[in-house]
Specification:
- This protein has 395 residues and is α/β, with parallel strands linked by helices.
- The protein folds into 2 domains: 141 residues, Alpha-Beta Complex (Aspartate Aminotransferase, domain 1); 223 residues, Aspartate Aminotransferase, domain 2, CATH 3.40.640.10.
- It has a 7-stranded mixed β-sheet, with helices on both faces. A 4-stranded antiparallel β-sheet has the order 11-12-15-14. It has a two-stranded antiparallel ribbon with strand order 1-3.
- Helix 1 runs antiparallel to helix 12 and helix 2 runs antiparallel to helix 9.
- The protein starts with a helix and ends with a helix.
- The chain binds pyridoxal-5'-phosphate.
- Pyridoxal-5'-phosphate binds next to helix 5 and helix 6.
- The site of pyridoxal-5'-phosphate has 13 residues, from helix 5 and helix 6.
- It catalyses: 3-hydroxy-L-kynurenine + H2O = 3-hydroxyanthranilate + L-alanine + H(+); L-kynurenine + H2O = anthranilate + L-alanine + H(+).
- Catalyzes the cleavage of L-kynurenine (L-Kyn) and L-3-hydroxykynurenine (L-3OHKyn) into anthranilic acid (AA) and 3-hydroxyanthranilic acid (3-OHAA), respectively.
Length: 395
């Protein structure tokens, strides 16, 4: 056991991202739930105090212009862009992921044109994507074809309008082949729509490099934007002039204050906006993104893989054989930034872990999830979590 503790200490000492932990408010628990709700960056409360008392309290309506409130959705989109490999002008922040899935799926069917009546949807998806795609399909006269990511290639065909996939599976932590599946969709003449909720901020995405058409993601997980912070929508530049939003609210109008009865879409990512942005959440997100200044996503990915490797090694060494089984793939190319362990009494085990200061979460019926956020989780945390897991399982 002490061997792992010593290794953890050495790995933490050598970790070039270790100092970033100080940027967050944390306690002495091991927080492995940043894949659900990221931790609070230390400077955000003071920034929000200023937003509330000065920008809202003192400047009131003037802040739409003077404090840059009106342009926040596209400005913050440009802050997220480098984290997901997008050039500026293609991401807009606002609404929930669910709403952005709706915009993206309907827009994709419109971009695909006539004669294609199928939408392939990840059968293992986070449920909201499937619910929304089902409704979008009914509204647009399409049919949803549920398909596991491994079977997407064989399911693609001349009838496929769009494919809606998760970059990382929320339950298993499996990383899907975004470059390969995007290329396969394109070969079939279809559009590729990706949900980045569990990858943005944890690993390189390369939206532009891989020719993704549309993408959505949330900001409250690895991007630490706060509970319910707004999601984002990516529309590749080549599609923007024909991107036809199913929710053409007034803030996506070319001249919103002209208040004309006829709709004329704005250019660029602004076209993905809907209504008045939720400024408080949005500005908390904007402030929280400061922690990324000077941080490379490649180094985050390297640390994430090292952390999850080390955690799996500690689990294998500490936990009695057969008590848990990893469901997250061992291969780096197939692993996101979480480790999921199948465990018969997962619910009771997670309760006991949380009581002992190891905060992960549970996906019923039998999956323990441990998310590793490289900005603030260290190797000693991974060792401690595995050790306490073994203690809990030994009871
Ligand atoms: C993969 C995925 N998609 C969508 C969502 C839901 O997003 P929202 O609640 O912002 O609509 C989640 C939430 O955890 C998720 O993990």
């Amino acid at each position: 056991m002490s061997d792992f503790k010593e290794r953890a200490e050495a790995l933490d000492t050598a970790d070039e991202l270790a100092a970033l932990r100080e940027l967050f408010i944390l306690d002495d628990s091991v927080y492995l739930d940043g894949n659900s709700l990221g931790a609070l960056p230390r400077h955000v409360p003071a920034r929000m105090q200023d937003v509330i008392t000065r920008e809202w309290g003192a400047l009131r309506i003037r802040s739409w212009d003077e404090s840059g409130w009106w342009t926040a959705p596209e400005r913050i989109g440009d802050r997220i862009a480098p984290l997901v490999g997008a050039a500026p002008g293609q991401i807009v922040v606002g609404d929930s992921t669910s709403v952005n899935v709706f915009k993206a799926v309907v827009a994709a069917t419109r971009l695909a044109g006539e004669g294609r009546d199928e939408i392939l949807v990840d059968a293992t998806t986070f449920p909201t994507d499937g619910y929304i795609a089902g409704s979008a399909a009914r509204m647009t006269g399409h049919r949803v074809v549920p398909v596991t990511p491994a079977d997407v290639r064989s399911a693609l065909g001349p009838r496929t309008a769009a494919v809606l996939l998760n970059h990382v599976d929320y339950r298993t932590g499996r990383l899907h082949d975004l470059p390969g599946l995007t290329a396969a969709a394109h070969e079939a003449g279809a559009l590729a729509v990706w949900d980045l909720c569990h990858s943005a901020g944890a690993l390189p995405v390369g939206l532009d490099a891989h020719g993704v058409d549309l993408a959505v993601g949330c900001t409250y997980k690895y991007l630490n934007g706060g509970p319910g912070s707004p999601a984002y929508l990516y529309v590749a530049e080549r599609h923007q002039t024909v991107f036809d939003s199913p929710l053409p609210g007034w803030t996506s109008h070319a001249d919103p204050f002209a208040m004309t009865p006829g709709y004329a879409p704005a250019d660029g990512s602004v076209r993905g906006r809907v209504g008045t942005p939720d400024i408080l959440s949005m500005l908390a997100l904007e402030a929280s993104l400061d922690v990324w200044d000077g941080v490379s996503v490649d180094s985050v990915r390297a640390k994430s893989l090292a952390l999850t490797d080390f955690f799996l090694e500690c689990v294998a060494a500490y936990v009695p054989e057969g008590r848990v089984a990893p469901v997250t793939p061992a291969a780096h190319a197939e692993r996101g930034s979480q480790v999921s362990l199948r465990c018969d009494d997962a619910e009771a085990v997670m309760r006991a872990l949380i009581e002992r200061g190891v905060v992960g979460d549970l996906r019923r019926p039998d999956v323990l999830r441990f998310g590793f956020t490289p900005l603030y989780v260290g190797f000693a945390d991974a060792e401690r979590a595995a050790r306490i897991l073994a203690e809990v399982l030994a009871v």
